[in-house]
Amino acid sequence: MQYHQNIEWQSAWALRAKIQSGKLSSEDLTRALLDRVRRLDGRINAFITVDEDQALAEARAVDADIAAGRPLGPLAGVPVTIKDQYFTRGLRTTGGSRLLQDHIPDHDSIHVSRIRAAGGVILGKTNTPEFGMYWRTAGNVAPECLNPWDTTRTSGGSSGGAAAALAMGFGPLALGSDAGGSIRLPSAQCGVFGLLPSRGRVPRHGGFGSTIFFSAIGPMTRDVRDAATLLSVIAGPMKGDVFCRTDAPPDYVDALENGIDGVRIAWWDNIAAADFSDPDVVSTVRAAGRQAEKFGAVMSDMDIVLETEDVDEAWRVLDFVDRHADLGEAIMADPEKAALLAPYASSRFEWAATVTATGYSRAVRRRAEFIRHLEEVFEETDLLISPTIGIVSPVVDPNDLTLRIPSLVSYTLPISFAGYCAASIHCGFVRGMPVGLQIIGRPNEEALVLRASRQFEKALKLGNRHPEFELDLAS
């Protein structure tokens, strides 16, 4: 295997260019990353399953395509990790649940199918809490995934394995999902980039725990252009998803460098989170957000206060009940199966079973009201910015798997509730831990959110600092 310096930190687009030009083989790249996973993943538990043989076979197939001069896809030869909520043909998919610890699907989810068609090499399945239902990545199949920057802390949830794998240099591309913050929160906590697509922009298919209103599938990366590329691969209509948009997505990569000159941006003053947010986190993120004026954006003199009363409770009703209908009702009807659930999963399903039709109807109405409120807010601005999370990543308590911390989702959950799009970009450190800036856009305006994210990425220049050094010093 040919040695390539710092290959683990290079972007997917740069790696693809090297593979296409013959400067690097996909097999060598895949072997290097697999070796890194073998050596280091025991420290953080980012993966549930790694498929070395199949990954190498897929890499060799790309190298053969290059040798034969065949056309290449946009991910040609680049390793991708898949959150273990989504089906991978012939590769174990557990959903983080003991009920499915030996489950091997006979087909791919639509996202995995599109990634394979684009030439992506599936490295393995990243860790997730059971059915993606907790803010820590603590399931029943693998040890809890820890934060690469400080292994006493959580990597976040529920796409914590995906974020930790990126932060540890286990690959440049990851597929995650987000119903209330599950892409954005671990991205902020682990210092990487994550994008929540708006409702229906990416189809939902071939996974566990999807809900009617939430659970968007999106890209997680260390590089904004990589996220735009992966989003372009997985977005687009699908006949089998009745909630999916039917229009073709724009070219996210082509528009990425267009800048945000003249774009109106406002700061979201989340007064509902003021009592349980860390002032150092909020001030660090706000200082990063002011960089937007250097890009030609027009920053509002007035902060925005969103009307989020009862949004958290209405989200709980819609999310928990829909997951109960999709998965929980059948599981809870079988006492032997119910006994295998994690405490947070069983408690959610039990609570969901008590919700009345009246309660569900009121939650649907509250969602409609909040969407109308956001539409009025966005008549005066093009983007909202805020912290992704108002605190640094919490220290894990292994003895408590039911605790709910409102501050974790106070900035992310309302955006999922409305079906808007948002990104979290690494924007600094507080007491040695990364924090994230959330960039919020209207539905189907992922291209604008990505353009803004790219401008912040260039201004903040945080891509050269990695947690491996901190881990090595502590070992």
Give a verbal description of the structure:
The protein has 475 residues and is an alpha/beta fold. The protein has two domains: 12-305 and 364-474, Amidase signature (AS) enzymes (Alpha-Beta Complex); 311-360, no CATH class. The chain contains 16 helices and 13 strands. The chain has an eleven-stranded mixed β-sheet with strand order 1-3-2-6-8-7-12-13-11-9-10, sandwiched between helices. Strands 4-5 form a two-stranded antiparallel ribbon. β4 (146-147) and β5 form a beta hairpin. α5 (160-167) runs parallel beside α6. The protein is globular and about 60 Å long. The two termini are 28 Å apart. The model has no long low-confidence stretch (mean pLDDT 95).
